[in-house]
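Running this now, will post back.
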Amino acid sequence: MRIFESIINHKINNISAEELLKYAEQFHISVTPQQAKKIATYLKGKNINIFNDRERTQLIKEIAKTAGPETAREVNKLFLELIKK
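Update: finished.
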């Protein structure tokens, strides 16, 4: 795994609810504090590789359950921006 991928995955897998809210605001994604907490709790310790299509798809499905399908679509757009090569 490239160092860049490693850094991004590490950040996502260890993100706090507060950081998630900050990034959501920065990228104009609607997430409530409760949703951010649930998403951050889900991500904690999962070791998800967003560069892997299968893992990213599963994560987006879990985010949709927690924060709704529209938020999940927006988060997926953000992930796709991050993984562009």
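Residues 53-67 form the longest helix (15 residues). More later if anyone needs it.
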